[in-house]
Amino acid sequence: MLSPELSARLGELTDLGAAGALLGWDQQTQMPPAGGEARGEVMATIASLGHERLTAPELGTLLDAAEPEDEQDAAIVRVVRRDHEKASRVPAELAREMELASARAHEPWARARATDDFGLFRPFLEKNLELRRRYVDCFEGAEHPYDTLMDNFEPGLTTARVREVFDRLREGLVPLAAEIAAAEPAPVLPGPFPIAGQQALGRDIARSFGFDESAWRIDLAVHPFASSLNPQDVRVTARYTEENLQGIFAVMHEVGHGLYEHQIDPGLARTTLQTGVSLGIHESQSRLWENLVGRSEPFWRHWGPRLRETFGAGIGDCSDAELLRAINTVEPGLIRVDADEVTYSLHVILRFRLEVAMIEGSLAVADLPEAWNAGMQELLGVEVPDDTRGCLQDIHWSFGELGYFPTYAIGNIVAAQLWEALSAAVPDLDDQVAAGEYGTIRDWLREHVHRYGRTVEPTELLERATGQALDPEPLLAQLRVKYGGLYGLAATPGARS
Ligand code: ZN
Questions:
Q1: Whole-angstrom Cα distance, residue 149 to residue 56?
Q2: Could you say which of 75, 105, 253, 326 would form a disulfide bridge with 398 (CB–CB 3.0 to 4.6 Å)?
Q3: How far does the centroid of ligand 1 lie from the alpha carbon of residue 356, in Å?
Q4: What is the pLDDT of residue 100?
Q5: Where are the domains of the chain?
Q6: Count of C-beta atoms within a 10 Å radius of residue 79
Q7: CA atoms within 13 A on the CB side of 124
């Protein structure tokens, strides 16, 4: 048992975190647009109260005096001490300046994106970068300044390791995408897909994955996301368009995030460890449900008839095989969030390179559009017509969130590693998915990933669940098998087995 004083402080920190999450959820789902300016202030105040509480010397004293009696309490003390020490190195004034700069950059970024005018956003990105450099300077001992930024999203991962893993990923993905591009293209479903039908189908799929009305909500948001106030209050969001079925896959994605939060050990309640351990592990959960379950052949054996019944003519005269190809269309494009399973990580690799270059100072913000466009040409073979569909497309840099992007591709890699381990543990996995049964998958993930919350470090978690370190080979091998079959590709030039 932790002392009542320490528990009370952790509870307070958790409550401030939940209040911030609720303000953020409201901002993106309910708040009228004109409320944005004032909301930025409220969120900055809550964040700075959290920072104040986390850095309080009294917390350090209580942690020093703690005598944890079991492994879980020991993990709580270790993780909170690390959070406390990290936060204590950042002056409160800098922390607040970073919060305010993120909030202030949002509107100019949105305007720059809407009017294709990078110049409007440029000074705000420069300010965010300057503040991140000052943040990095608060820490010593990192091999690379970018390591310090990534540590906030993917503890333990280094720039050097990401470079290695991404190089290998690029080597496998670029030729695979090229081979698919040369094969017969997937059919395009004619549509339209009325939104009411997508909402009903999305909700039923979400329920079958584990969405539970008493502890979850689905609301609409311009940029879908998931957040949770605690494991019994999970908020997922969705966005639908009549033109395609992306909204349904986005729901599966966000429910994957939600399940992670929902299945964390209740013993971690009102501690700051009752959340996902890293963004990469979090993204592995969303990608696993969206891609490895939701875009698989057995999944559509079950849900295909319902899809046809719901949308009728929208599906056209596609056979089941053609429908599956349509759901797994691969096409290099301009927009990361619209990218398919094969090309998605290439978008991430570009952002990683550019962020590292900007933080190193080898790329000036003014030269970002040009570097972006050249990278898109090199990695995806596409010409970028404007900055709106180029370097202004993502919201992250307006928040000043550098070091975040790599976690998206790490998520794809980890999802494939977990799927490999899960498939070995559950020999009739495909049959279960084809029967619309996901309980075994959910339980396996609870046991091997979710329940730990932040008590086990990402590398250790992966090692325990899969017996492996971070490794892009399972992802490359699975993509090759899947898309080799769907697109009739020859044997395995891109994969090292
Ligand atoms: Zn996600």
A1: 23
A2: 105
A3: 22
A4: 85
A5: 4-140, 159-487
A6: 20
A7: 26
Catalytic-role residue among 254, 261, 297, 473: 254
254 belongs to the catalytic site = yes
- Read off the tokens for 216: 């979850």
Whether 465 shows a pLDDT value over 90: the answer reads yes
Contacts of 380 (CB under 8 A, 6+ apart): 177, 332, 333, 343, 346, 347
Distance (Å) from CA 257 to ligand 1 centroid: 7
Separation of CA 292 and ligand 1 centre (Å): 14
User: What strands, in cross-sheet order, belong to the sheet with 233-238?
Assistant: 216-220, 233-238, 226-230
Entry pTM: 0.95
What's the angle, vertex CA 28, arms to CA 23 and CA 32, rounded to 5? 90
- CATH topology classification for 159-487: Neurolysin; domain 3 (1.10.1370)
Q: Does the structure show a pLDDT above 60 at 497?
A: no
Looking at residue 491, its pLDDT comes to: 65
Alpha carbons 284 and 416: distance in angstroms, whole number: 8
Neighbouring CB atoms inside 10 A of 308's CB total 15
pLDDT, mean of residues 437-441: 98
The Å distance, Cα 411 to ligand 1 centre, comes to 8
Q: Which residue is associated with the tokens 């933080």?
A: 359
Cβ count within 10 A of residue 223: 11
Residue 52: C-alpha distances to residues 57, 78, 93, 357 (Å): 10, 19, 11, 32
The pLDDT tens digits for 256-268 are: 999 999 999 999 9
pLDDT in tens, 317-342: 999 999 999 999 999 999 999 999 99
Q: Which of 214, 266, 248 is nearest to 446 (CA)?
A: 266
| 394 C-alpha to ligand 1 centroid (Å) | 14
* Predicted confidence (pLDDT) at residue 440 exceeds the cutoff of 80: yes
Residue 398 Cα to ligand 1 middle (Å)? 18
pLDDT at 492 > cutoff 70: no
Give the pLDDT mean for 237-241.
95
**Closest C-alpha among 96, 95, 126 to residue 109:** 126
- Answer whether 39's CB lies under 8 Å from 31's CB: yes
Of 411, 397, 410, 409, nearest in space to 359 by CA: 397
